[in-house]
Amino acid sequence: MKVGIIHNSLNSTGGGERLCLETIKSLKETGYDVILATVEPTNWDRVERIIGEITKPDREVSLFKIRMRMFGIYMRLLTSFLASKLRKQCDIVLNTHGDVLPIEADIVYMHYPTFALLKESPINIKYSSSLFWRAYFIPYEGIQRFLVKRSLKSLILTNSKFSKKAIKKYTGKDATIVYPPVNVETFAFAAKSDARENLVISCGRYSPEKNYEFILEVAERLKNRPIRFIIVGASSGRVSREYYEKLERIRQAKRLKNVELLRDL
């Protein structure tokens, strides 16, 4: 039995990409043949260096032969061209990037309804940071709203009660919660250790929607306590670098010696 997985790109190596890779691993272990459809070819050496040991699909098909460095969210729509091919070759098609496509998958793992990002309050995402980003995002928002009404007939999976509520609110559809995979065995020893530090670590790319300002606010309130705060993340791209620099300015202005900002480790 063949399963097709649609994901625009694994090269950003974020949480969505880890979920896609764990899906591939689980399907392979269960005995399925897996075809991965991407917009750009996966740099497997880089992905494995960052994420660790991975299970590759039986085959990868890519729309382009080179890496695409622009129009990231619009690349997700381009996977529609690959979805039609997977329909003919596979018994089941999964969409793990989560946005709605004109040619829909049987199952979509919707992390959050992307078109609703500017509807929630407070708004703290890059698409609200300037007129340029709003102009970039608004057409995509309209396309997604149209496709939700016209094409969203898939089984919807999501990552939390919070996202399930948002999906119901903005699409009218019910979603089933399947929590993202976490390799608990790797970290379980820390929970049993008596040598744990008073240390708070947050890992994730430097991006406005992460709202790391909240961590700095907590650190400021606790700066007279023996507690350290470390934020670790990637800062690729202009928006990400500017957000990192903003946090660093806040850290220095508030003289938060209990905070470290680490990037691109």
CATH architecture of the largest domain: 3-Layer(aba) Sandwich
Distance between the termini: 40 Å
**Radius of gyration from CA coordinates:** 20 Å
The CATH topology annotation of the largest domain reads as Rossmann fold
- Envelope shape: globular
Structural class: alpha/beta
As laid out across the biggest beta sheet, the strand order is 3-2-1-4-5-6-7
The number of helical segments is 9
Estimated share of beta-strand residues: 15-25%
N-to-C SSE string, H for helix and E for strand: EHEHEHHEEHEHEHEHEHE
CATH class of the largest domain: Alpha Beta
Number of strands: 10
Poorly predicted runs are: none
Number of discrete domains: 2
CATH superfamily of the largest domain: Glycogen Phosphorylase B
- The portion of residues assigned to helices is 40-55%
Question: TL;DR of this structure?
Answer:
With 265 residues, this protein is α/β, with parallel strands linked by helices.
Features:
265 residues, Rossmann fold, globular, alpha/beta, 7-stranded parallel β-sheet, 3-stranded parallel β-sheet, 2 domains, 9 helices, 17% strand
Structural summary, described in words:
There is one protein chain. With 265 residues, the protein is of the alpha/beta class. The protein has 2 domains: 2-177, Rossmann fold (3-Layer(aba) Sandwich), CATH 3.40.50.2000; 197-263, Glycogen Phosphorylase B (Rossmann fold, 3-Layer(aba) Sandwich), CATH 3.40.50.2000. 40% of the residues lie in helices and 17% in strands. It contains 9 helices and 10 strands. The chain has helices at residues 15-30, 44-51, 72-78, 80-89, 131-151, 161-171, 184-192, 213-221, 238-253; strands at 2-6, 33-38, 59-62, 92-95, 107-109, 155-158, 176-177, 199-203, 228-233, 259-263. The chain has a 7-stranded parallel sheet with strand order 3-2-1-4-5-6-7, with helices on both faces. Strand 8, helix 8 and strand 9 form a beta-alpha-beta unit. The longest helix has 21 residues, at 131-151. The N and C termini lie far apart (40 Å).
